[in-house]
Design brief:
mainly alpha
Length: 63
């Protein structure tokens, strides 16, 4: 799978998560956490900024 294919799949999953949030089956914070967790677990090219964000938040919260 190439990087362009990963971006297409990620865009579809983000659209799907957006539609779930819009239907009010899930709350928006749940959708954001699921999306960030998906990027992190898949370690797509977008997973690295998510990991850096989690590290920054963790250092800010836990010192």
């Amino acid at each position: 799978m190439t990087h362009s294919n990963l971006y297409v799949v990620d865009a579809f999953l983000m659209f799907y998560a957006f539609m779930l949030a819009r239907s009010r089956e899930l709350k928006i914070h749940q959708v954001v956490l699921i999306a960030l967790g998906g990027f992190l677990l898949a370690m797509t090219p977008l997973g690295y900024p998510v990991w850096l964000f989690i590290l920054a938040v963790g250092q800010g919260v836990f010192g």
